[in-house]
Amino acid sequence: MKRSLHAALPSLDTLIVFEHAAAELSFTKAGEHLGLTQSAVSRQILDLEALLGIELFSRQKRALSLTPAGTEFRELVRPSVQGLQEAVLAMRMRMSPSNVVNISVAASFCNLWFIPNLPRYYQEAVGAQVNVVPHVGQVSFKNRGSDAAVVSSIGPPPHCCSMKLIDLALIPYASAALMKKLGVQRFEDFDTIPALQLIESSGLWSQYFAHVGWPQSRVNYSGTNGLHLLNYEAAVAGLGVALLPPEFVVPGEQHSGLLPLHDAMLTISRSYYYCWPEGSEKQEAVASLGAWLQREVHLARQRRSRLPG
Number of structural domains, the chain? Predict the structure, then answer.
């Protein structure tokens, strides 16, 4: 009689239950996430331990912790579980209707411009749907999970079709609260600029000072962050002055609280590109979104504000 290979393996449901229990270190909280009772979670973990022949959790009166074997098992199975979930999502996105565009968007552009303006696209493109996933770094269309992407890049991204949306250009912004605290009203009033840096572009302030003809000695770095998005939030919180694309900001105390400190705009070597895979099956929807993006982001740059009006 043939032995079933399936019989020696736990079900995917059991592995998902284990992952949630390991993350929460609580059968009760894991059950709440999964819509199961505490006893149902406990039973699946006991069955898994019996199948493996090891204890995965150390159970104390009021505490649950992973055993060394449980920690090792979690590290071994987590990539497989995540890979299966990502594969299912990619296939579902691939089979979405022709009017639906699944787009991966650079995180700062996504949060500070794309999502706030997306309702305006829906007003123009009646019946369209855009599913958005933010990303950091480059993207790949190999698994066809995305129909399009917006990336920040020096030059056109390789291995795909692309169009330039806009060159990155920066203006210094500070919160009204910070300016009041320091007793300044203009860029020139600062004795030293409490500057927020970008990790990947640490020389931007030197470039800006050279651009406006200011001595480098007038900068004092108050923090370093990894994204324009984080520098934006840090500036809103009054932690320093950030160089930001003007289309990312709704200036004014009644909105973001950020105020532009200088009119001079520094254009840098990076640009935002809209890209899509060759042979796209959603060419019409992808082209419509790209044309709208290119037009609207240029209008936002001209008015130096994220939103019109």
Answer: 2
